[in-house]
Design a protein that fits this description.
Chain lengths: 233, 220
């Protein structure tokens, strides 16, 4: 398979100062293997765009422990105490965006739309200073698309071409994230033959995906992803 | 202590459940709203989860938990027959585009015109908003299910918000353990009051001005 890489090989493409777009809702649908590999890579001062920063010491939370983050852009960080502490100590910038605006900005980023007007957030602190406009007598705020250097996504399966199949609500932001990065790395639990995923079940067509990395670190037991004790080198 | 009693929360959940119609598309917020599915009786609703599901089913037994299928509160759930899955941008298109009939939200404060504050407390770290503003902007009907006062017995139903608002869109209805209010033309109308509760007592626990409905029910 042409796009198959090890986690280390794929993650090496991330450079200091990059904007990373990362799928997942908390730990659900989060590319855990890729994040772990990133903690062993030397890229620093990263901006992560993701709904949350995982949990304390888990998922994207590990990038706080490894001190590789400069900024987090997302909708909900309160549940990760490490994020709150890093922010309070001025070690982490946080930009808060309503969840639907985050999703739409990523969609726009991948769809060639520079900006769009939405009602969400009108009249609140979160849109202070942004351009406003009335349509049909109702106020809307202008929100800009979000793009990044690298996208990290998680799907259940990829086929040999790199088509992705998402599992239940672990889909969440992943399809949008997969369109909005210059380089897209997909972590999957399983690789199947081209044609084994029905065309109507493909959540992300292969043209969006640059590299596929097989998750060999987390095994699903009792419905939960359990970390296996395997080293990287 | 001042912790809200379980019976109060159940009472609020039951009353909101009564308000929902068979076939409604409903988004339930965190906290008290999560209790509502237990009190729906025979009514069949389509419960929407902002992380990409229409058709939330009952909580699974421990041996059938799948963390790839969770609620917006990140708890394991199941899917009801006819459920559908979609990405986050599609989920919020559904919410923002006016395709959700009712959003049932918790609130920190509501003012006497129905303006809502449900995401931030001044002086505290403001690091989470989630889908609160999208739901306020987009749902066809907004019901606030909330305790009548804060844990330190301060009024939450007030004349003017002191917490940051969640949008320009206003609530349609407020359900607390003490009373039910509806809003018409930015006027707050008391429609139901708890048994053993007088209007004078309610005026003490409610800073906002309200009008008493001529059809006031006193057995809530």
């Amino acid at each position: 398979m042409k796009k198959l890489r090890t986690a280390e090989e794929a993650i090496k493409k991330i450079k200091t100062g990059d904007i990373l777009l990362v799928g997942g809702f908390g730990l659900s649908g989060s590319p855990l293997t890729l994040i772990d590999a990133l903690t062993e890579h030397d890229a620093r001062e990263l901006t992560v765009v993701s709904n949350n920063l995982g949990e304390e010491g888990r998922g994207l939370g590990r990038l706080l422990v490894s001190q590789q983050l400069k900024k987090a852009i997302g909708s909900y960080f309160t549940t990760n105490r490490d994020a709150v502490k890093a922010w309070a100590a001025n070690d982490l910038e946080i930009e808060l965006i309503p969840q639907g605006t985050l999703a739409e900005s990523l969609r726009a980023g991948g769809a060639g739309i520079a900006a769009y007007f939405t009602r969400t957030g009108v009249g609140t602190e979160l849109v202070e200073g942004k351009e406003m406009r009335e349509f049909d007598g109702e106020p809307y705020v202008l929100e800009q698309a979000i793009k990044g250097e690298v996208s990290l996504v998680k799907a259940l399966k990829a086929d040999s071409l790199g088509n992705l199949y998402y599992h239940k609500t672990a889909m969440n932001f992943n399809p949008e994230v997969a369109t909005a990065g210059d380089l897209v790395i997909a972590e999957v639990d399983e690789i199947v033959e081209t044609g084994d995923i029905a065309p109507e079940d493909i959540g992300t067509p292969h043209i969006y995906v640059d590299y596929v990395v097989l998750n060999d670190r987390y095994i699903k037991e009792g419905g939960r992803y359990i970390e296996q004790n395997v080293g990287y080198r | 202590m001042n912790k809200t009693s379980v019976t109060d929360k159940v009472k609020i959940a039951q009353r909101v459940a009564d308000e929902l119609q068979d076939g409604d598309v409903v988004n339930l917020g965190v906290g008290i709203p999560t209790l509502i599915p237990d009190y729906l009786g025979d009514k069949s609703l389509f419960l929407q989860s902002e992380n990409g599901l229409l058709g939330i089913g009952p909580t699974p037994p421990d041996d059938q938990v799948d963390m790839d299928l969770i609620s917006a509160s990140k708890k394991p759930i199941t899917m009801s027959p006819g459920a559908s899955l979609f990405s986050s941008s599609n989920s919020f298109a559904m919410i923002r585009g006016g395709h959700v009939d009712v959003a049932i939200l918790g609130a920190l404060q509501v003012d006497e015109t129905g303006e809502i504050a449900n995401w931030a407390v001044p002086g505290k770290d403001i690091l989470g908003v989630g889908g609160a503003m999208d739901l306020v902007a987009g749902a066809k009907k907004i019901i606030l299910s909330m305790t009548h006062q804060s844990k330190d017995k301060k009024p939450k139903i007030i004349k003017k918000l002191t917490f940051p608002r969640s949008g320009v869109r206003k609530a349609d209805m407020v359900v607390t353990e003490q009373a039910v209010f509806k809003f018409e033309n930015e006027t707050m109308i008391l429609t139901e009051i708890a048994e053993d509760f007088s209007i004078d007592q309610l005026k003490e626990s409610t800073e906002a001005n309200f009008v008493v409905s001529p059809e006031l029910k006193t057995d809530y």
